[in-house]
Structures are given as C-alpha cells and as structure tokens.
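User: Working on a comparison across species. This one is HNH nuclease domain-containing protein from Sporichthya brevicatena. Can you predict its structure so I can line it up against the others?
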Amino acid sequence: MLIDLPDRADVGCEPPWVTGGRPPSPGDPDYASYQDFLAYEARRDAFWTAHAAGPALPLDAPIDMTAARSDAELVWEVADADRLENAAYGAKCRAVSNVAMRKLRNPDADYDPEYLRRSVEAELGCLLKLSPAAVSNLCHVSMELTRRYSKTFAALERGEVNRVQVQAIVDEGADLDVAQAARLEERVLPEARERGGRSFRDRVRREVKAIDADAVRKREKRARADRCVYLRPEYDGMATLCLFMPEDEAQRIFKALKERVHHDRAIQKEQAAEAPLVIARQDERTIAAQELDTIQAILGEALGIDPTEPEIPASSALSAEAIELLDLHANTYAPTAKMKTAVRNRDKHCRFPGCRRPARQCDIDHSIPFTKVKGKVLRGGTRYWNLGCLCRFHHQVKQMPGWHLEQDRGRFIWTTPTGLRFITYPGADDPDAELPDFIKELTAPVPF
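Assistant: Here's the predicted structure for HNH nuclease domain-containing protein from Sporichthya brevicatena:
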C-alpha cells in the first residue's frame, strides 16, 4: 500500500536552494544556513569518495549509512516512520472493519449480530495475540471509524493522526449522532497536529460538551456504573491493584493517604528529636513505598488479613489413580466439587488462546458436548480430560458456527471459522517448570 506523505519542502524541511531556488548572497538572512548546507554536502561527498577508494569490505561488514545525513534528516526519518506507523494502523482498522462488516451483512446462520461480532473478535484475538478487551476495542474503533468518522479514518490512513487521537474521538463522541460526529471532526481534526495525548482528549471533550452536553452526562453516568476493583499482574513478582472510581472520590482518598504518610513521618522526626542520644534508624523506603505500605496496612487491618503472608498454592499434579476416582461420576452432567477444583487447579485460567481470566471466574465446560440418551452417555462424559475452564464469553464463542475444540489430555486444539488452528496448554504451577510428561510426548506447534 502506497502512503502519500507531505513533501518536505511543504513543511519547511527542505531549504529553497535544494529545490532549484536561487542560493542566498552574503548579507541575506539565510546565508549562514546556506554555508552550513555546503559544508554538509562536502562532508557527504568526502565520505562516499573515501568509502569508494578504500579497501573492499566483506559483504556482511556494517556500514554507517547515517554518516552522510544531517541531524535534521535523521529527525525527519523519525517523523516519516511515525506517519507510516499511523497509516499502517489505519490499514489494519480498514481490514478489521471489512471482515466484521462482511460477517454482519452475510451471517452464516440466524444468529444475533452481537454473537457474530464476538465470533469475529475471538478469531482476530487469536490471530493478533490480543486479549479479549484489546481486540474488542480494536473492532469497536474500526467499526466506528467506518460508520461515523470517515474524515478521521481518511486522516489516519494518511498517517496524519495517531491511534491515541483516534481513540479519543471515538470514546468521547460515543453518544453523538452521525451529523454531530461530523461536526466534531471538522472542529478537532485541524488541531491534531498541535495537540497530543491528554491535551487532545480534553479538547475533544470540550467540543462534545459544546455540541451536546447531554452526551457528556451519559458517558459520566455509564462510567460511574462501571466502577470496579481489579488486579493486573505485572513483572518481577509484582501486581497493580486498581480502583476505577469517580475522580473526586479518588482524589479525596489519595489526599488522605498522603496526609497519613506525612503525619507518620512527622511523628518519627519528633520522636528522634526528643531522644538525641538514640540513633534513629534511617527509613530507606521511598515516599511512594511508604504510601503503599500505609494503605496495605489499613486494608489488611480492615479485612482481618496479613497481606504479606503467602498463600499455599494449589497443585495441579494428579496421579492416574486420582483421575480415575474423579471419573467415577462421568455419567452425571454436573461435575462434582472435587472435579471442579481439580480442573481449575490444572488450567489456572480460561483456556481460550490469549485469555487469562482466572479459573475461579470461568465455567467448567465439556470439550465434547455431554450427550445422554435414555440414561446412557453416548459421548462427552464428565471426565477429567473432557473438562476445561472457559470464561463465559469464550464459552459462548465455542458454540458459534465454524468453531471447533478438541482436547487431548489437557492440550486444547482450537479451530477458527476460517481454518486457523491454535493450541493452548494447562498453566504450570511453576512458570519455569518443564511441561508434564504427557505433554512432552505430544508433537504440536509452540503453545499460544
């Protein structure tokens, strides 16, 4: 796909004498710049002349290809790459929109459009290695750009706006009609070059409020209804505990937390001053760490727990005899409590590719549907190797047209409506541990 980028001369990158203009004379305002340009040209010619006259280098020898380019040119290359990245994101959104629109216009079966959208999202999530939330947002943005924000879409495909700015327009204009959305584009797109990040989002929000104040109130009401607490695993054994709540309430809590920490520090200093002969122990914690320790102590006391005491992890190791005992109830549809615990301990999370919803929040699904006729189970018994954890969203996706799931002793093999295949394995108790023997014996692609 060819991307038309603005000419450098149009934005002042190329001086006029490079494009055929008259070189400046001594005394002209641009004469000093012209002398710098001539020096740069001389350096470039000298570099390539020396390179051509030098000894032949091996084919794999590194060559400094930037030596002949000025700092301004190198900086401009960064801008070029940024516009190409924006345009590539626009091309991705266009492709996603094309797939989704085709599915919705030509459904494979008489299914609700919402379920068809979920099926598309699930397949794209597998392909792009995105979480359900990320791929859902990608599909939403792509569809909104197609349906209501054609000018923004065109600017994105030209690389003139970035994904953060596009996200701001789509989010803030969610409750505008088509005519109002067009007005929003006309007013904020010209400012996309001068504003970025939070500044651009604030500008869009003010414009939406000017166009339809009720739309802003609707968004705020929905956001307040979505308040929640959630945990996001991080790296190096850390995690982020998040509170999504109204800003004014969060500000009051944060202010009280700061005051509590500063109060405790003031008391420590007073105690140290009253006992000058006692060498006070230096608190090596940062202010941020003290704030966290304070709120951790408050929550631990309120909940009656010690957050620093580790839990004993549930092991997924089961002997063949233990599995046989669990399978004694294979003829009943509902798994026993022990079977549910064993399957959740084995899987750790939803077994759909890329989904990490904890197993405790998942359904226990029969990989082969449970079929019982006249008291006899014909297929899909409630057995350990026929059960798995699927979140409610992916449980529904599994039953959509074109989806197929096989299970081979804990290995889940997913086939999408377009024939793509993805494989997931049970979560290990120790992420650095080797795979179990029954999985090592299987030949399969690299796990998702």
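For your comparison, note: Residues 72-226 form one domain.

User: Helpful, thanks.
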